[in-house]
Design brief:
alpha+beta, 2 domains, ten-stranded mixed β-sheet, 13 helices, 12 strands, elongated
Length: 375
């Protein structure tokens, strides 16, 4: 019987303790996977939405770190931006999280300038687009259509006003698929924010380079005090909700690591105390102390590896379930990269090593004569 089979047999002979240890590790790893996937997914969802629109730079208030950047009047800022070199189009955008139905969760309501480039990436699934910028109609994303149970021709009440659903659209971004879309003027009316936008989207011409983008960033900082021009990635990165999510994810990793290591440590220490005579017999039969260390560490690694694999599966399943909750649908699209999964599995292995080393050295230091006298 080789060392691995010996370690597996030792774990198999204590099924209850083995199952509890694996379960504890799996729960910790599942929490890490779920929270990290959601945090990264929230960030990626918003960045994907901005990238899908073809926006090169976003202008917003420099101090705004809210989920939705603080609204501001665009009439003085927009002409300055439009006059900058290589700027093809400057488009305002207003976003709000609003309740549009008593039996459905709040959804994002986007107000876009009618006829601007922001509409170009959307695919019309059913119905038609608004006829002009003042027509009192809305468009709903494919996910929003399911959640709100609304289709083309239905009435949708927003902030006390009734709008007809002109059509259903599809986007590459989950956030937009779960949103309600209307023209900017209508959005400003129903939210009582005339002339205000959350951000101004800048579309550059085809000849613009990265150096031109950097120049515009500098010019905005110099000519428009209180405002900043940033990329979509930079905007999402400074979002308070994204930063809180990442902080919670990091805290969970730390807590899960400490708890996991302690669970493995406790399990292996109890196992050694119960197997003192067995270890003494192995030493008396000629087993080397380093072999005893390898045996105990192997058992700890098997426990943590099983817990890690189970935790990854559980975490992905938990995240999938959260994504499909009514309150979360259309707001996040969790991200699980292969490198992240490997890192999580590596964390599990690290927990096994940390939790098994001391018990392993303690077992290796036992004297055969003293161990054999142990009752």
């Amino acid at each position: 019987m080789n060392l691995l089979h010996f370690a597996l047999d030792n774990l198999y002979r204590r099924p209850a303790r083995t199952a509890l240890t694996v379960s504890a590790i799996a729960l910790g790893i599942a929490a890490v996977v779920a929270l990290t996937g959601i945090a990264w997914g929230f960030e990626a969802s918003w960045q994907k939405a901005n990238d899908a629109r073809g926006t090169d730079l976003i202008v917003t208030r420099a101090s705004s770190e809210n989920t939705m950047p603080s609204p501001f009047r665009a009439d003085k800022v927009q002409p300055v931006l439009a006059a900058l070199p290589h700027v093809r189009e400057v488009v305002g955008l207003l976003s709000e999280m609003l309740s549009v139905s008593e039996d459905a969760p709040p959804v994002f309501v986007f107000g876009w300038v009618y006829g601007s480039y922001l509409w170009e990436h959307l695919k019309l699934v059913d119905g038609r687009w608004p006829a002009d910028g003042s027509e009192p109609v809305v468009m709903v994303g494919v996910l929003a259509s399911e959640m709100l149970h609304k289709k083309t021709g239905d009435a949708l009440e927003i902030e006390g006003r009734s709008f007809q659903v002109a059509g259903v659209f599809e986007s590459n971004a989950v956030v937009e698929n779960g949103a309600v879309l209307m023209t900017l003027g209508l959005a400003q009316q129903i939210t009582d924010k005339p002339g205000k936008v959350n951000v101004l989207n800048i579309k550059m011409d085809a000849s613009a380079s990265d150096a031109d983008l950097d120049k515009i960033k500098l010019q905005v900082r110099q000519t428009l005090p209180g405002f900043v021009a940033i990329t979509s990635g930079e905007l999402v990165g400074k979002n308070a909700l994204v930063r809180i999510s990442k902080a919670m994810s990091n805290a969970t990793i730390l807590i899960a690591g400490l708890v996991g290591a302690l669970v493995v440590f406790n399990t292996m220490l109890m196992s050694i105390n119960e197997r003192t005579r067995e270890i003494g017999i192995l030493l008396a039969l000629g087993w080397q102390r380093r072999t005893i260390i390898r045996l105990i560490v192997s058992e700890a690694l098997l426990l943590s590896l099983a817990g890690g694999l189970a935790g990854i599966v559980l975490g992905v399943g938990l995240t999938w379930g959260l994504e499909h909750l009514e309150v979360m649908r259309g707001k996040i699209d969790a991200v699980f990269s292969m490198s992240f999964m490997i890192a999580v599995l590596g964390l599990s292995v690290f927990l096994g090593i940390c939790g098994g080393l001391y018990p392993a050295f303690k077992a290796a230091r036992l004297l055969p004569s003293a161990a054999l006298r142990q009752e």
